[in-house]
From TrEMBL:
An individual GO BP term: methylation
UniProt GO MF annotations: chromatin DNA binding; histone H3K27me2/H3K27me3 demethylase activity; metal ion binding; methyltransferase activity; RNA polymerase II cis-regulatory region sequence-specific DNA binding
Organism from which the protein derives: Fukomys damarensis
Gene Ontology cellular component annotations, sorted alphabetically: MLL3/4 complex
PANTHER family the record matches: HISTONE DEMETHYLASE UTY (PTHR14017:SF25), LYSINE-SPECIFIC DEMETHYLASE (PTHR14017)
Protein name per its UniProtKB record: [histone H3]-trimethyl-L-lysine(27) demethylase
Reactions it catalyzes: N(6),N(6),N(6)-trimethyl-L-lysyl(27)-[histone H3] + 2 2-oxoglutarate + 2 O2 = N(6)-methyl-L-lysyl(27)-[histone H3] + 2 formaldehyde + 2 succinate + 2 CO2
Amino acid sequence: GLPKDQSSHLAGLNDEQPLFSGDSTQCLQASSTGDQNQNGLHKPPRNSAPQGDVCSHLSSHLATSGGQEGITFTKESKPSGNRYLGSETNRHAATASNSCAGIKRLSNHVHQVTSVTISNHNHGVSTSPNLIIADNPQLSALIMGETSDNMGGGTCDKVNNTSPSVHTKTHNSVASSPSSAISIATPSPKSTEQTNIQNVASLKNTLSGLHAINGEGLENSQSSTKIDLPVFSHKASPQLIPSMSVCIYSGSPEVLKACRNLGQNGLTNSHILLDKCPPPRPPASPYPPLPKEKLNPPTPSIYLENKRDAFFPPLHQFCTNPKNPVTVIRGLAGALKLDLGLFSTKTLVEANNEHMVEVRTQLLQPADENWDPTGTKKIWRYESNRSLTTIAKYAQYQASSFQESLREENERKTQLKEYSDNESTSSDNSGKKKKAPFKTIKFGTNIDLSDNKKWKLQLHELTKLPAFVRVVSAGNLLSHVGHSILGMNTVQLYMKVPGSRTPGHQEKNNFCSVNINIGPGDCEWFVVPEDYWGVLNDFCEKNNLNFLMSSWWPNLEDLYEANVPVYRFIQRPGDLVWINAGTVHWVQAVGWCNNIAWNVGPLTACQYKLAVERYEWNRLQSVKSVVPMIHLSWNMARNIKISDPKLFEMIKYCLLKILKHCQTLREAVIAAGKDVIWHGRTNSEPAHYCSICEVEVFNLLFVTNESSSQKTYIVYCQDCAQKTSENLENFVVLEQYKMDDLMQVYDQFTLVSEFSMLVVSWVVKW
């Protein structure tokens, strides 16, 4: 079990299975005891009734516009699983038997279960929240949920509508093209790059005739490893009090009533959260392993010819489809007439020559190799020393590096004329290259462009991009954080010379990323699908490296021996690289170039799930989650209307856990004789983290008496506060949200129908 001080805010309750657990979600699934109709759907019990109109399954339309003109979000830095999901309508008997076996294996965590369905009178189908419930002897009543095996699949590919926003509806479009749509494969330089080249017209033809985004036509685009979100509820006993039954569809008064008096025995480190079920962990390598000939897959690429192609709705779906770990959008700058010169070194110096630049001193090496400093053996560890300079000084270095390269090139040509045996000379040079000391280079990274006053022209130019790749849009989860996360919901610039490396990593909290090459040189990318991050984590451990925190450059030979596929491609000036959620990647500059990059969070169940999983994994690894997922989830509930049932249930479940935790902790603090002092929250105030363990602290802030009196507010979490002062004598407890306000947000966050979203979109347009 988890140590008590590592119990998670977003995990389940006591014996509950976490909604996003790595292992357990793959092996748990309830089988229904109710009757089934001719279509294989469960008939609801006679006394069951839907609570709210949340079960309608209307076809979705494609949201292509995420933002509103005039909305301004204030925006803080660079690098940080389970493939999801959905259950099919007709379940085979083999699946049912495997599910029963999964229940037996986890009998310590989940008691006897049966499914309780919620009837949809409009369509005659049954749906239910994806919720696991277990007995809690401390609760005055059992916590109860409903389940069904008949939820539609393909939730990773769903795109939710946001309101108010302008949307366009596209019929018969899906998230991605099947693999058969790959029409052309072209080799990259050095015969290492293979690319899927599609123009927008062919993409449209490929996608036509299939179901809409929130329909069921996306099953074929799912990963080969598919699991269902575990959905269970307890068998109702005669002693169960209906008013005390709690699920995500219960009102906030019932939730708080179920939590009443849990903290009357004093403070406890265990919170009310999960500490028994298996914690998230790196996934095993997908099975069966890929054949050797598929370890260099072609890179999905789309060529754009004009602005209309860039705003073509299925382009969004193609990029966010989990089947595509990376997408290269060729010619984006030309199609949108972006002025990339605004990000050139010359313009940057003229605009803000004293702006700070983080410099990484590195060794110049071949892109597909990483040697130790002596050049005697290949290693995974990659060393780079950090320093600071200004844009003006780095610009001088960048220019002098280019001039020096020209001079060396001329000398090399002169030497080649003096030797008759060019082949032997080349062989001798390549042999010396590995043994001789490597040349030192400097990489200008993490240049902050968040200040709208300093970089007004540059940031305004990026508003020409399609909504799904913009820095700020209503459909971007990171735009709802409410404060700046440097490099994630703000733009960062990179100034490079040949050989500049961004080591291997996943993005912070597994969010997607956008990278545009300003030029004039190229960049070479290496990409591994999210399914294989556990394999790379194992390699890091074998090489005494930390996957999340260390600097590493993978050995391609090791990856191929482990049957890990590696996408390899060249990014040219004007090309946009979309890195999908959870994708592992590393980059090396081929020439002299600048790049701009930021993160985005598509409104999909897959993105939210992977973000929460990484949030939990970071907690176990004592790594700070740059994205405050608890804070973000509450802001999503306030700001966004959700039409995807899977995404809605995951968010609602997290809100349920946090609401119960806040109520229980508040009562425990009061029972311990401490006053809860109202503190409130200012606009654009960042989320708070524990100053000791760096976990997110939501609502109830434990602040030392000294820092409170000095208004410095050094925040502790409950666990660290109790370790410092067992009776909290040296602490003041500050409250940022009224429980009534949280209850109102929780109750008003409901699933909306697709029809309602269409009406809202039409009204906004009109």
